[in-house]
């Protein structure tokens, strides 16, 4: 039995930069997790080749598995990726109605590209292949495969929130997309809330969720704890901090991440608790993302204006409250920040899961996690300080508390969090999904007892 993994972005891409070809690893959390599976089990990975030299590597053997790429023309990329996936579905599934652009042409391209994926999958299928499709860019793939007569087991893993049914149903293509996803044999979510919303959407749009009862699972993605807690990473030079508390965050530049509200919370902290002034430095790493989508350019401008305004008001020769870094930092530097930070400030307005919070917990030795209650990870990480990211007063208050928290309490919380992420780590996630898949594959049905034990977050 072999896995055929399907994701929009590939694990690696080939780039030509200044005439020289190089291999670029995709570092996203999802890809890292799936690389682990593929290196262990072999198999095929179908994805879009978005590197400018990928057309030379349509089929490639890489670290023990096969990569098969589909190539997209500029118009296809724009319609499928920029307009529909990131301009319609992404805001829809994060409750950003005002950012959501309806795009019939984008949908057409989304359909075309999903068909390309389905066709490429067909080329690599054998009788025993388990097909594992990921995320909102590929919702039409399960339905298209079934239309082509494919009877293989299909797993569909959903990485972002699934919104309330009445919100989901505003999408013109709501029925067709949902209907396709339900053609998978197993559908996995990060939280019970998303699973419930999915069922409610089916009830609302189709009158019933009968056929879905045995198909959905909650398996919240874990991380490679050993890697993040290893000692092989250099520390940050602490001289630069001059004894100040280090507050840290790292996010993709995205309106879901609550970046501007977070800067306002820092401003509130300074205003409301004047004694906190000069006692902290907030290092905010923002990684460029979706730079071809207009909303993201506007967000960058607004964020940078807000940071500039706050720094302008409060900086002097000896102190600047916010150190803003707009680039992707190396893994090593990221690990050093995780290790050194006194407080990780992770306050997305909404987030499917949020791997950064788990990575910080694994790496930290005596840090405090302040986490948005609207991140999927908050359902498991109950020992974090949970905050409503929309309330700068509350966030400022909690940062202030964290700055002066008793060392015993810091240790208690951190170790409780470490136990949780250790128990539900990446290996657990992969094994839970694989075990269910194998059970369904071999017995053609579901073991309900295993469902109970598999669910990790109590309601
Ligand atoms: C989807 C869902 C869900 C980020 N900046 C840098 C960097 N990163 C790494 C982090 C982390 C990953 O990227 C981002 O984690 P997310 O959880 O945001 O994952 P995504 O893949 O972007 O998003 C999300 C996830 O799927 C998994 O299901 O959690 O809710 O939106 O691993 O460390 N790494 C380095 N430099 C950076 O500047 N080295």
As a percent range, the share of strand residues is 15-25%
Reported by name, the CATH topology of the largest domain is Rossmann fold
Number of domains: 2
Helix fraction, binned, reads 40-55%
Number of helices: 16
What is the CATH architecture assignment of the largest domain? 3-Layer(aba) Sandwich
Bound molecules: GDP-alpha-D-glucose
Shape by Cα distribution: globular
Biggest sheet statistics: 8 strands, mixed
Q: What would the average pLDDT be, to the nearest integer?
A: 93
The CATH homologous superfamily of the largest domain is called Glycogen Phosphorylase B
Cα-to-Cα separation, first versus last residue: 35 Å
Radius of gyration: 22 Å
Q: What is the β-strand count?
A: 16
Summing up helix and strand content along with how strands pair, one would put the structural category as alpha/beta
Topology:
Elements: E1 3-9, E2 12-17, E3 20-25, H1 29-41, E4 44-48, E5 59-62, E6 65-70, H2 74-92, H3 104-124, E7 130-134, H4 141-147, E8 154-157, H5 165-168, H6 174-181, E9 186-189, H7 192-206, E10 216-218, H8 225-229, E11 245-252, H9 259-272, E12 280-287, H10 294-314, E13 322-326, H11 331-340, E14 343-346, H12 355-363, E15 368-372, E16 385-387, H13 392-403, H14 407-423, H15 426-443, H16 448-454
Parallel strand pairs: 1-4, 1-7, 4-6, 7-8, 8-9, 9-10, 11-12, 11-14, 12-13, 14-15, 15-16
Antiparallel strand pairs: 2-3, 5-6
